[in-house]
Amino acid sequence: MASKKKADGKSLPGDAALRKEMLHSMLLQRRFEEKVGEAYALGKIGGFCHLYIGQEAVSTGIISMLRPDDYVITTYRDHGQALVRGLTPRSVMAELFGRIDGCSRGKGGSMHLFDRNTNFLGGHGIVGGHVPVAAGVGFAIKYRGGDQVIVCFMGESVVNTGAFHEALNMAALWKLPCVFVIENNKYGMGTAVERAAAIKDLSRRADAYDGMHGEYVDGQDVFAVREATERALEIARRDPKPVLLEVRTYRYMGHSMSDAVSGTYRTKAELDEYLKRDPINLLKARMLEAGDITDSDFAAMEQEIKAVCQDAWDFADASPEPPLEALYEDVLVDTTS
Amino acid sequence: MAIITYREALNQALREEMSRDDRVFLMGEEVAVYNGAYKVSKGLLEEFGEMRVVDTPITELGFAGVGVGAAMVGLRPIVEFMTWNFALLALDQVVNAAAKMLYMSGGQYPMPIVFRGPSGAALQLSAQHSQAWESWLAHIPGLKVVTPGTPYDAKGLLKAAIRDDNPVIMLEGEMLYNTKGEVPAEDYIVPIGKADLKREGEHCSIITNGKMVLVAMNAADQLAKEGIRVDVVDLRTVRPMDVEAITTSVKKTNRAVVLEEGWELAGIGAQVVDYIQRECFDDLDAPVVRVHQADVPMPYAKAIEKAAKPDLAKTIAAVKKVMYLG
Question: Which side of chain B, N or C, has fewer Cβ within a 10 Å radius?
Answer without folding.
Answer: C
